[in-house]
Amino acid sequence: MGMGDTAEGQDGDPADSAKPGPQIVDIVPDGDIVLDVTFETSKETLRAARKAAKPRPGQQAAPPVFKPRTRVGYRVSLAVLKENSKYFDNLLSDTRFAEARAIEASFQRLALTHVKPSEAPAADLPVVKIHEDDEATRSAVQDSAFADLLRILHRKQSTTPSKAVTMHSLAVLAVLADRFDCTATVARYVSALKYKWPATQTRLSRDDGPALSKPSEETLRQKILVAWLLDQPPKMQIATRELILYGSRRWSLTATTVSDEDDDDDNPEYRAAWWDLPDDLEAELHHRRHRILATIASVPRHFLALYTSRARQCKLGYDSSASCDSYQLGEMVKFLVARDLIFLGDFASSSSSSSSLAHDYATVDVVSILATLKQVPSYQIDKNHTNCGLRTRILPILEYIQAMLSAGVVSVPRERWRKGREEVAWCDLEGTYDEGEGKGGAEKKKRVFAWTRGMATDQRLRYEGALAADRMAKALFMADEWDWTAEDKEDVRGVEFGRWR
């Protein structure tokens, strides 16, 4: 996308001057300049739009006609554009640009004929040529979206019926507002629109619980983009948290750059602006999900390490049994493998083949992973070993993690991200250093989260949005290591193989 270098255009076609002018749309009938805009639409966007617009069986309405190139002239007020758009203010006021010089010369010619620009016919007004492609919007109807943008800037009623407003149309409008640097005016319009944002729709997958279809994820991403660009903090708080918990196709382990696995006639490409969220939001949301998944994965990993160690885990006193530990380990592995929560490989497997055994959790609901772990049965080797299994040890931990997912720190706050993201970002959070040593040669001190049973009953967790809960959640998810049995190290030593240890 870009503005022409000269008022005469940038297509490089010498015959352009001989071509008939564009159809004129009067944004304001007394406008004093004309924006001559050429909209280019890619083949991929045209295919998707035509397929989406195909009439259903029994429908009589003719489908709309989409063209690869559309040229429209908009009669607008120069003063209004300069007042509401920093982009147009810079371009049309600074005589270093050809557009500003052409407007000034045209006004001088009209002054010689004693004709006011607001009363002159459109053919006599100065023309500013603009060229727009669909790289960021992936929209086949950019001309109508651009017309709505101009009407909003001129405080005119949009011709798009309120019932026809969709999340996609708002996202296209937000992208154009950002492109022409007039988001403040458009944000006020959207706030006054009273549009009811759609709830996030999920589908129930066979094994992984609720999941987002590609259209649902696209709508969720559009909500984040609109909330970010058009100043909707509560909507952004909710939408970023949902994307973190549900995951994204863009974050798949098998995707290197932009995934093309769904790039067919049914789905537009991933090149629209909402598929790569701006201002480091994409990387931040991906990183937060990674940290949350790493925290949850550390729980079964911790107990697998305990039950494969030499330390006795059976707590039946003199009747404690190594056989009980072996039994619990076997049942634990069987449960986790059956639920695709751990994956086994052999020593002959190459790194490429073994990695293909792992399930890609990029689009698996985080809450469903916790729910699956909570299903671990209470295994007993016999009727006496009632509390030796994983279930009694893991449930309070999982409840605590789930409570921490409700903390406000999990989502991205718009104002704090805009004004001081270094204070709220998880991506750039550095580890601490040992006291008395500078950063020059000291290694980063690992952040170790030590779990205690008292954390599960902490009264501060009862109050949603409490600052204490935010600090606790960040300490949990930003840890480098997790000790889920820290209290057990303080217990009185038990008996192992008939001897005190």
Overall tally of domains: 2
What is the number of strand segments?
A: 13
Report on the biggest sheet.
5 strands, mixed
| Strand content bin | 5-15%
Distance from N terminus to C terminus (CA atoms, Å) equals 73 Å
Instruction: Give the helices and strands as they follow along the chain.
Output: EEEHEHHHEHHHEEHHHHHHHHEEEHEEE
**What do the pLDDT scores average to?**
82
Low-confidence stretches: 1-18, 256-268, 430-442, 491-501
Gyration radius, rounded: 30 Å
Helix content: 25-40%
* Count of individual helical segments: 16
Largest beta sheet: strand ordering: 1-5-3-4-2
Global shape: elongated
Structural class: alpha/beta
What does this structure look like?
Strand 10 (448-450), helix 16 (467-477) and strand 11 form a beta-alpha-beta unit. The protein has helices at 43-52, 78-84, 86-93, 98-112, 142-153, 167-179, 183-193, 214-229, 233-246, 281-307, 322-338, 351-355, 366-373, 391-405, 414-424, 467-477, and strands spanning 2-3, 23-26, 33-40, 69-76, 127-132, 203-205, 209-211, 432-433, 444-445, 448-450, 481-483, 495-496, 499-500. Helix 6 (167-179) packs antiparallel against helix 7 and helix 9 crosses helix 10. The chain has 501 residues and is α/β, with parallel strands linked by helices. It has a five-stranded mixed β-sheet. Strands 6-7 form a two-stranded antiparallel sheet. Strands 8-9 form a two-stranded antiparallel sheet. The protein folds into two domains: 1-56 and 64-196, no CATH class; 283-500, no CATH class.
